[in-house]
Specification:
The complex is a heterodimer of chains A (233) and B (80).
Chain A (H helix, E strand, L loop, with lengths): L6 E5 L5 E4 H21 L9 H20 L7 H16 L12 H32 L7 H43 L7 H5 L1 H32 L1
Helix pairs in contact in A: 2-3, 3-7, 4-5, 4-7, 5-7
Chain B lengths: L1 H38 L4 H22 L3 H10 L2
Helix pairs in contact in B: 1-2
Chain lengths: 233, 80
Amino acid sequence: MDFGSRILFEIPIFGGMPFTETIVITWIIGAVLVGLSVIFVRNFESVPKGAQNVIELIVEAINDLVAQTMGKDKMGFAPYMGSLFIFLTVANIVGLIGIRPPTADLNMTFALAALTFVMTHYFGAKRKGIGGYLKSLAEPIPVMLPMNIVGELANPVSLSFRLFGNIVGGVVIMTLAYQGLSAVSGMIGLEALPIFQAGIPIFLHAYFDIFAGVLQSFIFVMLTMVFIGMAMD
Amino acid sequence: MGNKKSIFENLALITYLGVAMIVPIALTLFAGRWLDEKLGTGPLFLFIFVVIGTLAAFRNLYKIGTRDLPKRKGRDDDGS
């Protein structure tokens, strides 16, 4: 059994450039989210009604979260954190409709974690100045320098591995559960009528896709905010 | 409302503790072994790197644990 991301097509430049499921599904999710925001944001009124209420609720919740976690002076990060949270949530629960979640690919999660890493150190250096930033690596005593560097380098690794591990674990268990249940259906002679696959996976989907997916995307965004906030304080 | 959000924040940080501890140790373990293999220095760099990694793991835990302390002090100063 192969749980890896399949290569869908290759573009014959640079000696063959493979495009995996991960990339194509990410494009689709991105296009859907951009399309939805264009549609919903088109005619806003000062007194909200209908879908505008929901949009304002989401935006306000994200603004509150950023203000509380990072502080009022870092509200400029709210759009990035909001986009990241919405994208990750959709990417994690897309397994509900039978698509492989793009976050079940270490390339995807590590790219996002690398973005967090770069932002942490760029904004840390910008706020404190290059000298102050380098000095903060040797605090509280200069002996701590190697530990601080190793500790900072470990952050993107742990951030990406935990998201990847949670989602890919869900994908593997769901695949095995569907195959096991179809075998059980076959045993009692109901190959044509997949009675077991219809009901039982609901609970597994509720846990692995919805609960774990939303919680992990929340944790990813929360830790991104904490890291950037800590580097800037 | 504010209290409920800090529960989620703390939940996120608590579930992070285990990973934050194992990753620096694993990273330095592999880095030390790789250096030893390249330079043929036996377990020398492995020992040095694992000690650094363990201390870095504790430093990460310390940073996560004490993250909120200055903020709380600031809140008291505001009188809120």
